[in-house]
Amino acid sequence: MQDGAETVRVVMVTGPSGAGRSTAINALEDLGFEAIDNLPLSLIPRLLDGPPLPRPLALGLDVRNRDFSSEALIELVDRLHRLPGVAADLLYLDCDADTLVRRFSETRRRHPLSPEDSPVTGVAHELELLTPVRDRADVLIETGSLTPHNLRAEIARWFAPRSGRPMTLSVQSFSYKRGLPRGVDMVFDCRFLANPHWVEDLRALDGRDPAVAAHVESDPRFDDFFRRVHELIASLLDAFVDEGKTSLTIAFGCTGGKHRSVALAEKMARTLADQGWRVAKRHRELERRGFGRAPSGQG
To answer: Can you tell me the distance from the alpha carbon of 91 to that of 145, in angstroms, rounded to the nearest whole number?
Structure first.
């Protein structure tokens, strides 16, 4: 960006083929974004270094891009996040493999990664290729159960101009066994809390279950921990807004990413939403195992 230019908002839209990228880009265009689809990654920095842009940008990026790779896209995202005068978000439209295959079969479209083969092959290859990008997303929307109308409404919820809270929050849970999530701004370790994994009736459940949440919250250290973490987060949110940040990711980690971290993320997300912030929740380990199937090991 040129010195003295106003901050430009850039939303990079990606995800597996068939997940709704075109619908999302059209929705952003209707919200006042200038939409550009399949622009080579190498040209995006040059676009932002050019004359001041009158409107926010929505950039469609997928495997058909000439120079696309997961590594190049992640490098670009990190570069844009460091640029003064640019407020960049990576929007990832996620969808399960079965739904993607069904969509390709219904429309009789060929998958771009397997034009001469079954869509099953292309879908599996693309999901594997995009896994690092998914982990890096600033905003993740699961589209498997959404109609195009629902998806447009979800895009508007995240990206429509509004007079309310100007920053969106993502509250996540994760397992330390698999390492820290990429792109997280604030991380809190809750492995010291009472572990439901050691309670036979709770082991198969996850932190979204009221019984698991009650067990975690019964730890005498829970209330003080949650209060202090919430006070810290609340004290910093307006400062991040003043710095022009448009999204913030907060993560809670435990051993297996199934019980304690999920319960903490759920409670913090509700608390922040009640205070008027736009909040999305994401549970990395539960997502990896089909939204609720437990990983092995401790919770």
So the answer is: 18
Give the other-Cβ count within 10 Å of 199's Cβ. 15
Contact 91, 42 (CB under 8 A): no
Q: Which has the closest alpha carbon to 195: 182, 184, 210, 206? A: 206
Cα–Cα distance, 111 to 63 (Å, whole number): 11
**What gap in Å lies between CA 57 and CA 1, rounded to an integer?**
13
Helix spans in the chain (H): 21-30, 44-49, 70-82, 97-107, 119-136, 148-159, 210-217, 222-242, 260-274, 284-288
Three-state DSSP at 171 gives strand
3-class DSSP state of 8:
strand
d(CA 167, CA 74): 22
Task: Tell me the two tokens of residue 118.
Answer: 């079954």
Q: What are phi and psi of 279, to 5 degrees?
A: -130, 135
> Which letter does DSSP use for residue 114 in this model?
B
Q: Which domains does the chain show, CATH number per domain?
A: 8-159 (3.40.50.300), 168-288 (no CATH)
Over residues 41-96, the pLDDT tens digits come to 888 988 888 777 788 999 999 887 777 888 999 999 888 888 888 888 999 999 99
**For residues 165 and 14, what is the distance between their CA atoms, to the nearest angstrom?**
25
By three-state DSSP, how is residue 68 classified?
Answer: coil
Q: What's 20's DSSP letter?
A: S
* pTM, entire model: 0.61
Among 53, 134, 131, 130, residue whose Cα is nearest residue 91: 134
Q: Extract the tokens encoding 204.
A: 């198969």
As separate numbers, helices (DSSP H) first and strands (DSSP E) second, the chain gives: 10, 9
Q: How long, in residues, is the chain?
A: 299
